[in-house]
Amino acid sequence: MNQKVTLVVRILVGLMMVVFGANKFLNFMPQPTEIPEQMGALMGILMNSPFMTIIGVLEVLGGLGLILNKFVPLSLTVLIAVLFNAALFHLFFDPANVVGASVFLVLCLVRVYGYKDRFKSLLTI
Known about the structure:
Blueprint (H helix, E strand, L loop, with lengths): L2 H24 L10 H11 L3 H18 L3 H22 L4 H17 L1 H4 L6
Helix pairs in contact: 1-3, 1-5, 3-4, 4-5
């Protein structure tokens, strides 16, 4: 893959994760006005638990790892888990907004290909 494209994808995903992770602490992004009922109930439970704090920390640390180009395979592993859950959450509770999480999940998976030598031992039998 082209090195410039790789750099742009790494920085873009890193910045997005830092912003969304920081938002879990600072609440600077407006909440949607219309939330599906089941999603609202589940979000209420999650927001009143340590779960979202842990996710926010993982997003910020993973994003910083990508931005700073440090511990990238570890950062990708953590962020893929977070983004996979975000994509499933939106798929089941808010399908109209599943695209964002899915796009960034795919971008992280594409970046894994750049580190395939680091991940191949995980995929052997």
